[in-house]
Amino acid sequence: MSQRTSHGAASGPKILDGKTLSRAVARTVTAHVTTLSSKINRAPGLAVILVGENPASKTYVASKHRFAKECGLETFDSHLPASVTREELAAVIEGYNHNDKVDGILLQLPLPAPLDGSEFVRMIAPEKDADGLHPANQGLLLQGAPAPRPCTPLGVMTMLDLAMSDITLGETTTLADLPRASLAGKSAVVIGRSQLVGKPMGFLLLERNATVTFAHSKTTDLPGVCRAADIVVAAVGVPRLVKRDWVKPGAIVLDVGINRLPDGKLCGDVDYDDVAPVASAITPVPGGVGPMTVAMLISNTVSNCARRNGVVL
C-alpha cells in the first residue's frame, strides 16, 4: 500500500530508488498482460536479439528477459555470433517483423564491428520497436503522437513523478497510484544531447510543460546553466561531473550516467555524496535509472501489443 510523506533538502533528499519503483511498473504491466491475454487469446511477445558475447550486453539481456517472464510475456530469443553477416541479422529482424506473436523487438546495442546498430534499428517495424529508437517513432515523439518512447527517458519521467509526489512506495503500489507531475513553471536542464537519452529526454519534459535547456560540452558556463534549473538530468558519460555548486538548493537531480572507475566501482555523472545534501530528490547509481530502463522496455512492448490490437489499457 502506498504511503504519503514529505521530503526536502533540509531533511535530506528523497532517494529515488529505481529498483523499488520498477516493482510498481512490474505490477502495472502484469495487470495489463492479464487484460490483453483475455482479449487477444495470447500473451504479449518480446523478441530479444543478442549479437556476440559482450558481458555487459549479456547481463542487460538477462535482466530484460527475467522482467518480461515475471510479468507474463512470451519471449523469443536469438543469440547470434559476432561473425554474423549483415544479411543474416537482417533476416532475423525481418522474421520477427512478420511474426504476429511478437509485439516488441529488442536489438541489444552496441553491435560488434563492423555492424552499424542504427542501420538495423531502422529495419525493425516501427510498431514493434521496444526501445523507442526507430526514426519514425522519434518523429512521432516530436509531434506528441502515440508511439513507443525511448526507455531511459521514459523511466526518468516516472522517477520525476515520484520525486514530485508525496508517495512512499509500498508492496502493492502501481503506477496508477503515482500522480502525473505537472512541470509548468519548472525549468529543466538536460546535460547531453544523444538520440538515445538527451534529445528525447528534453521533448518528454516539454510535453509536461517544463522550460527546457539542452546543455553539452560546448555550453558556456555549464555550472551556471545547471544552477538555474529546478530539474537537472545528467546524461553525458563523465564520472561525477555535476558538483554541489552546480545545483540549486532544492533541485531534483536525475543521474542517467553509469561509469566504471579504475577500481571497478560504478558511479554516475553526478557526484552523489557532494550533491545529495542540497537536492530535494536524487537518483543513486547504481540502483536508480538503470532498473527503470529495463522496466520501461517491457512496458513499451505491452503498450505496442495494445496499440496493434486496438485494446485500451
Summarize the structure.
By secondary structure, the protein is α/β, with parallel strands linked by helices. Helix content is 38%, strand content 15%.
List keywords for this structure.
313 residues, alpha/beta, Rossmann fold, 3-stranded parallel β-sheet, 38% helix, disordered N terminus
Task: Describe the protein in words.
The protein has 313 residues and is of the alpha/beta class. It folds into 2 domains: 40-125, 3-Layer(aba) Sandwich (Rossmann fold), CATH 3.40.50.10860; 150-290, 3-Layer(aba) Sandwich (Rossmann fold), CATH 3.40.50.720. Helix content is 38%, strand content 15%. The protein is built from 10 helices and 13 strands. A 6-stranded parallel sheet has the order 2-13-10-9-7-8. Strand 11 and strand 12 (266-267) form a beta hairpin. The longest helix has 23 residues, at 18-40.
What are the secondary-structure elements, in order, as H or E? EEHEHEHEHHHEEHEHEEEEHEH
Query: Could you say what the CATH architecture of the largest domain is?
Result: 3-Layer(aba) Sandwich
Q: Let me know the CATH homologous superfamily of the largest domain.
A: NAD(P)-binding Rossmann-like Domain
What about the largest sheet? 6 strands, parallel
> Which runs of at least 5 residues are low in confidence (pLDDT < 50)?
1-9
E-strand count: 13
Note the overall shape.
globular
**Which class of secondary structure composition applies to the elements?**
alpha/beta
Query: How many helix segments?
Result: 10
CATH class of the largest domain: Alpha Beta
What is the mean predicted local confidence, pLDDT?
A: 94
- End-to-end separation in angstroms reads 22 Å
Whole-number tally of structural domains? 2
